[in-house]
Amino acid sequence: MNLLPTTLRGTRVVLEPLAAGHHDGLVAAAQDGELWNLWYTSVPTPDGMEKEIERRLTLQDRGSMLPFTTRRIDQKTGEPAAIIGMTTYMNIDQDTPRVEIGSTWNAASAQRSGTNTESKYLLLRHAFELFGCPAVEFRTHWLNHQSREAILRLGAKQDGVLRSHSRTKNGTLRDTAVYSILEHEWPMVRDNLLHRMSRPH
């Protein structure tokens, strides 16, 4: 299982290995919509962005996470442009192998633009076709209906709900909805995502 940082490029987004130099761009992306104020997400505040980058890179060094910075691709030039968010492979199980796609957030102006769909496509393709994962997992807050609906639109199926699974940033207990896509489902999921991405946004 190849866990080396790598760049994944599509037509709308490019996923670059997270680096400390992405700090200012990530702060600007989080400020687009003040995403840290959404109670059901864990988007870092501007003051907390440096610490979050360090946390993700530390987990990368330990082999349990492979974090990415998401950039929009300029449709006129075809070149990577503004940073719009972050995403990761996380909870990496190298023996199975198996990964979870999560810790994802995108600037408000980038939402419903097709960028998130393509990001998930790039990550899923890499996980199934390069890593050889038999399953890829997604987790989200049970009350985050927008995220749950987006995961289902990818073609994932719900495995279950982990009740009182973890603490949220305000200290309340979170029920976590767990979803997955299996290796034999990937061709159908891939074709669905390619069809969705072919439509104009």
Automatic annotation (TrEMBL):
InterPro entries: Acyl_CoA_acyltransferase, GNAT_dom. Keywords: Transferase. One of its GO terms (molecular function) is acyltransferase activity, transferring groups other than amino-acyl groups. Residues 12-157 form the N-acetyltransferase domain. The keyword Aminoacyl-tRNA synthetase does not apply. The keyword Transferase applies. Coiled coil: none annotated. It comes from the Bacteria. PANTHER family: BLL6696 PROTEIN (PTHR43610), N-ACETYLTRANSFERASE DOMAIN-CONTAINING PROTEIN (PTHR43610:SF1). This is GNAT family N-acetyltransferase. It comes from Arthrobacter echini.
